[in-house]
Structure prediction request, 178 residues.
Amino acid sequence: MKVYRCRICGDPYLGYKAPTNCPFCGAHGRYIIPAREWRDENNIELSAASRKNLEEALKIELSNSEFYRCASARTSNIYLQGMFKGLAKIEAEHAAIHAKILKMDDCADLYHSDACNDEDERNIDDSLIRETNAVEKYKLFASQAVESRVREVFEALVEIESDHILLDQGAKQHLSTK
Ligand SMILES: [Fe+2]
Ligand SMILES: [Fe+2]
Prediction:
């Protein structure tokens, strides 16, 4: 048994070998390193632009996490229940990453509930809009970042949210062939 740690979210993973993706934030395998090599890279001075972008990203993640929690609770499809639950946890982890870099302990006041739909199909379409928006915003935020750590985090998130688009496309296909 070994201990690994994710360079993006910082969470530890205990297992026989490194996972292909961080189970907490979804970061790709190259960000998973042996725990002994891990260092806290979040203690950085932020430019005004990055602070503003991280605050916007935090709101996006909180809203998306709440949306997925709602979608998971409402569906009767067992696959979608799992998919939405997994997404809710990952997006909450993303919010925690942004809060850490912003040195915010409590982001409860930013938390707002987002209603989802009753139909799975519409929730998947909404998810596609949310994930596409996140990818576009994070590409822009990465390009605007003067801090290498902030750029790296947004680039990792672009990959993760792009994975979520693929997941949605797969789920849409699965529903249409049912
Ligand atoms: Fe996210
Ligand atoms: Fe996502």
In short: The mean pLDDT is 95. The first strand starts at residue 2 and ends at 6. Residues 48-176 form a domain with the Ferritin fold (CATH 1.20.1260.10).
